[in-house]
Amino acid sequence: MRLISHRGNINGPLPERENSPNYIEEAISLGYDVEVDLWFEGGSFYLGHDKPQYEIRFEWLEQWYYRLWVHCKNIHAVQYLKDFNYIHYFWHQEDDIALTSFNFLWTYPGKELWGSSICVLPELNNEEIPNNIHGICSDFIKKYKKI
């Protein structure tokens, strides 16, 4: 089962560090995949949830691509990434599911889970985690390491 840190968090939300490149790299160094929020504006890439916050180079995405689940926050990010089939990305807002570029179901918190689902933020609904899903994305991902 893939264990995915939500924005770099492993032991609970830290809004002041979420999506910062160093925080993400720390989670990766501990063996986790990481969901990151990506913007593409004015010819540059940025990480940040509600707005472009941390400018990064495309090379940073290429360096960590094998551990990143890239949540495109604007259509410009989707347009740019669609030509790079090795970068795992998706777009969603409040849809029940979003199909990622690698054909996984990024499943909105509390919605029905399937075999290729990623259970997102199960802590919001005290969700039981079925054994047959592909992964979990959580702010508390460290607690799922035993699964």
State the main characteristics.
147 residues, alpha/beta, ten-stranded mixed β-sheet, 3 helices, 10 strands, 29% strand, globular
Account of the 3D structure:
Helix content is 16%, strand content 29%. The chain has 147 residues and is of the alpha/beta class. The protein has one domain. Strands 1, 2, 3, 4, 5, 6, 7, 8, 9 and 10 form a ten-stranded mixed beta sheet that branches. The longest helix is centred in the N-terminal third of the chain and has 9 residues, at 21-29. The mean pLDDT is 96.
Blueprint of the fold:
Layout (H helix, E strand, L loop, with lengths): L1 E5 L14 H9 L3 E9 L2 E4 L6 E3 L1 H7 L3 E5 L2 H7 L7 E2 L6 E3 L5 E3 L9 E4 L14 E4 L9
Parallel strand pairs: 1-2, 1-10, 2-5, 5-6, 8-9, 9-10
Antiparallel strand pairs: 2-3, 3-4, 7-8
Residue share in helices? 10-25%
Write down the domain tally: 1
Strand-residue proportion: 25-35%
Shape: globular
Task: Give the terminus-to-terminus CA distance.
Answer: 8 Å
Number of helices: 3
Supply the helix-strand structural class.
Answer: alpha/beta
What is the average of the pLDDT values?
A: 96
Q: Which blocks of ≥5 consecutive residues have pLDDT under 50?
A: none
Radius of gyration from CA coordinates: 14 Å
